[in-house]
């Protein structure tokens, strides 16, 4: 027979299913909203990469597009390369959000990779590697994502 805590967990997930359908998030999602958002963004960005039809102007400019408003002259640039670059950018950000959500190389005990049997040196190495990757996520990848936030359309 299931324990009370298991029934409580199941009840919250059941109620949470309807809360997500009604308002887009469940009460239990706000406990770790960063991970919930990352879990939603990763597959959504991959789907956008698969189904996108447009290219943000910033990506077109990287491949030679220009427009002079005074003369009305437009230089088209290489839209095929810009389109590929945009799709790669979307997939790259999806991978970063998935990494953040799954925390596979994180320092939490529940993920199981910081084993008490490991040497202190190995634990320190793993934690340092994780912290370096987290710093890149927060200082490089997230600002880049925010810069293109308004371009997340099909």
Question: What keyword list fits this structure?
Answer:
63% helix, 154 residues, 2 strands, mainly alpha, two-stranded antiparallel ribbon, single chain
The low-pLDDT segments are: none
Beta-strand content bin: under 5%
Secondary-structure element sequence? HHHEEHH
Largest sheet: 2 strands, antiparallel
Q: What is the 3D form?
A: flat
End-to-end separation in angstroms reads: 48 Å
Present the secondary structure layout.
Blueprint: H1 4-23, H2 33-51, H3 57-62, E1 66-68, E2 73-75, H4 79-102, H5 120-147
Antiparallel strand pairs: 1-2
Helix pairs in contact: 2-4
Description:
With 154 residues, this protein is mostly helical. It has one domain (29-151). The protein is built from 5 helices and 2 strands; from the N terminus they run αααββαα. It has helices at residues 4-23, 33-51, 57-62, 79-102, 120-147, and strands spanning 66-68, 73-75. A two-stranded antiparallel sheet has the order 1-2. Helix 2 packs antiparallel against helix 4 (79-102). The radius of gyration is 21 Å and the shape is flat. The N and C termini lie far apart (48 Å). The model has no long low-confidence stretch (mean pLDDT 86).
Concise synopsis of the structure shown:
With 154 residues, the chain is mainly α. Helices cover 63% and strands 4% of the residues.
């Amino acid at each position: 027979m299931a324990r009370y805590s298991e029934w409580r967990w199941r009840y919250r997930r059941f109620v949470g299913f309807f809360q997500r359908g009604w308002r887009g998030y469940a009460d239990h999602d706000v406990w770790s909203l960063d991970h919930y958002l990352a879990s939603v963004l990763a597959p959504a960005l991959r789907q956008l990469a698969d189904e996108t039809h447009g290219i943000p102007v910033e990506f077109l400019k990287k491949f030679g597009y220009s427009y002079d408003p005074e003369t009305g002259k437009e230089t088209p640039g290489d839209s095929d390369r810009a389109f590929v670059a945009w799709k790669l950018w979307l997939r790259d950000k999806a991978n970063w959000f998935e990494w953040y959500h799954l925390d596979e190389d994180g320092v939490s005990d529940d993920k199981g990779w910081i084993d008490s049997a490991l040497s202190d040196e190995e634990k320190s190495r793993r934690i340092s590697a994780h912290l370096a990757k987290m710093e890149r996520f927060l200082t490089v990848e997230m600002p880049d994502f925010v810069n293109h936030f308004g371009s997340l359309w099909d």
